[in-house]
Amino acid sequence: MDKKSNPSIIIFKREIRAYFTSPIAYIVTGLFLLASGFLFFNTFFLNNRAELRQFFGLLPIVLSFFIPALTMRMLAEEKRSGSYETLLTLPVTELEIVTGKFLAAFVSGAVLLLPTLFYAVTCFVFGKPDCGPMIGGYLGALFLIASFSAIGLFASSLTKNQIIAFFIALAICIVFTLISAFLIFMPASVVAFFDFFSASSHFESISRGIIDLRDLLYFASLTALFFVLTVESLKSTGEAR
């Protein structure tokens, strides 16, 4: 590894190159477009509405499946193949490893959204949608991707098995996504407390075009929490060797 280069950037470039030269990138992207396309065109044609409300409404659940699929191999495969031990022999820290992997996961997730801009263009061609919620929806989606990428990396750091890593990340993402759906069964005194932990609630707020500092802090905190947990997980793995 070139000492003059930032190790995180080198790892980021390596991950991006490996991802986009593998079949999984196109499989995941294709499946994501099928799912998101159904959400959009179901509203567009059946309800005759030029809007992205339903698309954004179910996007947190869709990303709960697809972001773990992107991240499941990033650390688990390194451990399984033994390349992680080789990586530790280089002048690179756990923080730099996680930073590079996280950036690659975030960019890969953001790339999934790019083709969906076609839906926005379609709305403007056939109607006059409100730009605020549309911009807010995509901004919120990027925050979701960042948080779920950190969660996915954490899950991938816990095991050598990609499938186990996927289901751990999926379970965590689903909990944060669907917790708001169970608030009606909770006492009124604790609803506000649990609603604060709902990724869907904060995403919904941003997707209305309302930028609230509390929503931004929520996603920043969630991302930072699992980012730090991943670093600590790798440190404990290194100490156990």
From TrEMBL:
It is a multi-pass membrane protein. It is found in: Cell membrane. One of its GO terms (molecular function) is ABC-type transporter activity. GO terms for cellular component: plasma membrane. The keyword Lipid metabolism does not apply. It comes from the Bacteria. The chain crosses the membrane at residues 24-46, 55-76, 102-126, 138-157, 163-196, 216-234. InterPro entries: ABC-2_transporter_component. Keywords: Cell membrane, Membrane, Transmembrane, Transmembrane helix. It holds the Pfam family ABC2_membrane_2. This is ABC-2 type transport system permease protein. It comes from Treponema ruminis.
